[in-house]
């Protein structure tokens, strides 16, 4: 996907995502986006005989920032393997990878990644959804919250606790339509509504042994690979989506003359510096295959800087301008989603628990 081609689709991208913001059930309309087919196969491994092509984190970083500048829903609502695909690629055997990835090679579809739970966020060691071993498979009991596309995607991965202790985690590849005892519903959302955050319930759901990802690996290796493949690797990339949102606001503000261009320059400089930082971390991870420990810091700094930029612009425009430019209000809503996007750290756990309680009321 050529980055220089993305900007030419800005108007259509914003038109499609504006519809999603008012009615998130229209996410399937993103299939009409010219880059949908490429987004749908982003991360799909090459088939036998095809030239190997590894999607670098640097390329993903640049892509996410460019799409974020149009609208973050182009990432959060996009079809494709997403984070689930990174897990399946890291842990799945040949049959599991075929079951999952062949869907995306065949046509436009969506996936989900079910980790988050109330009170514990994405702390894999503290999740409570149980996976009880039975003849031929497992019985899953528990709930998941804030799962992107969880009520509508046909395939995804779910994390559970097979045994107590740090080595007791397990991850399963599931197809909800084939499960008895599974249900999911959409949650109310404030920003980035295309993510279709969901509440999932597993009421004694049976999954076969073949659903267990990484069954051929030691438990320690399973969870290490899972964390490394997703949260650790993607944190800088999620942060740059926020940088893209802020850059998009600065660009539109400058173009419409709402705020003098010189006033915006220090924000442009900060966003550019943090994008360079994120790219450097991604390049390091691409080079040695190990996500850097600074990945979380990059995300936090990017989100903070992007939020300051959006808030500063809004504080400088008139009340009338806010009514006349609804994209400003949308950006104010969307940018606040990034504190929780892609994982909730221990520092945010108290806030996330309160968020989950408010979503239920």
What does this structure look like?
The protein is of the alpha+beta class and 361 residues long. The chain has a domain at 222-360: Up-down Bundle (Butyryl-CoA Dehydrogenase, subunit A, domain 3). Helix content is 50%, strand content 14%. It has 13 helices and seven strands. It has a four-stranded antiparallel sheet with strand order 2-3-7-6, with no helix packed on it. Strand 4 and strand 5 (169-174) form a beta hairpin. The longest helix has 38 residues, at 219-256. The protein is globular. The chain starts with a helix and ends with a helix.
**Assembly state (oligomeric):** single chain
Give the beta-strand count: 7
Query: What is the class of the domain at 222-360 in the CATH system?
Result: Mainly Alpha
- The total of helices stands at 13
Order of adjacent strands in the largest pleated sheet:
2-3-7-6
Strand percentage: 5-15%
Major β-sheet, in short?
4 strands, antiparallel
Distance between the termini: 42 Å
CATH superfamily of the domain at 222-360: Butyryl-CoA Dehydrogenase, subunit A, domain 3
Report Rg.
20 Å
What low-confidence regions span 5 or more consecutive residues with pLDDT below 50? Answer: 344-361
Secondary structure category: alpha+beta
Order of helices and strands: HHHHHHHEEEEEEEHHHHHH
Averaged pLDDT:
86
Q: Tell me roughly what share of residues is in helical segments.
A: 40-55%
What is the CATH architecture assignment of the domain at 222-360? Up-down Bundle
CATH topology label of the domain at 222-360: Butyryl-CoA Dehydrogenase, subunit A, domain 3
* Shape type: globular
